[in-house]
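Quick one: structure tokens for this chain, please?
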Amino acid sequence: MNYAPYRLSEGLVLEESGNLLPWFRSLEQLAGKGGKPLPEEGKRTQLFWEADAVFGGMNVSVQAMERGLGIFFLDLKNGEKFESAKLEYEAVLQILKAKFGDPAEVGSDDYGYPWVRWRWGGVCLNLALAERFMDYVALSVSNGVVP
């Protein structure tokens, strides 16, 4: 496997709590790592870490889904408010370029929404501007899965 920074070959490191969220673990196996179960009652379908840091101090919330054993979804939490999802996408892109260099892949979907990917073997960091009822920024890190 190619070198993956920030121990991404092992999983996602939550820097403030010191937890490693390893790849390919069930929600039950990840539950002891401090994530809040959602929904709180009934069948747990996801775990949510409201505030931590990844990639050398990037403040994010983290979501793990029941069916997403090889993927974690990230949401930037730096306190900045953006006038549009496009401006947020550009800001996150600049942060990631500063940490990882230029992306390995650059493209756009059928509707013209941009996406970029960094790859280290099977590990993929994906940033996209997407639309589902409204424009939003999608940031994820995965192993063997391309969102």
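Helices lie at 27-30, 85-100.
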